[in-house]
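Consider a typical record:
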Amino acid sequence: MYIRWIDDLLALAETKSFSRAAESRHITQSALSRRIRSLEEWVGADLVDRGIYPLELTPAGKLFCEQGREALQLLLSARAEIRQETRMPGKAIQIRAGHTLSMTFLPKWMKQFHFHHGQFNTRVVAENVLDAVTALSEGSCDLMFCYHHPLTPILLDPEKFEYLSLGHEDFIPVTARLPSGRPAFSLPGRKTAPIPYLAYTSTTFLGRVVEVILKQAPVEPFLERCNEADMATLLLNMAREGYGVAWVPESAAVDALQKGELVYAGQDEWHARLEIRVYRAINNSNAALQELWQSLQR
């Protein structure tokens, strides 16, 4: 049983709607439904009455929700106390960052920041955006670095969280380079010969951005989903090996593009512009974080 399933049920009890609860939990409605079903299987009883609208919790669901909330608070309090005791010494910041940003943007940004504003210790955890948002919401980190796109926003309460924009980069389709110098596959493809599509899993942020690009494309793309992954670097490597077309942040592909191992699979209409943001909880009392945030604002 995962702790996040309790949060899912609490969100459902508050919103009385699978769609609104999924939005507040930053996951798809189908993913939320699967997780609630998994929780019900673990408990051994139906927790949600799906036969009425707006939906209500069953008596078992209300009991589990009440006691689950108390248990969750105790667990989170214990974890916060333990983490406080095991924090890195001195001026230290706990960071969560998306996989790509943790390998491309973050090391360079930290080097520049240290040069201009002084040294501080960091503990960085690379993970998907959903887990990073959860960590920030639960107080498990001080800063969260992520991409932002206006049509696939990350919904965090502006009264509790704030962000700064640190820059932008292009989100591009890439494919292997043939000996002739031409791309192995070119968008939009043909109906009789669809392009092998190296896709992100459905719950990822970058996967939702690709969906936006394809919906806004000036012509219909012909793609055949052949492989899925939740990390841009894995899809990039598969594209380099000639498996198909993948969309990746340009910073992840720049070396392979310069070496001629990858080429663009489409023109600007197949690109998107991603904003790089850093978030923090407004009520975070970490003195090192407050000093860093003030430096960022200046």
The chain has eleven helices and eleven strands.
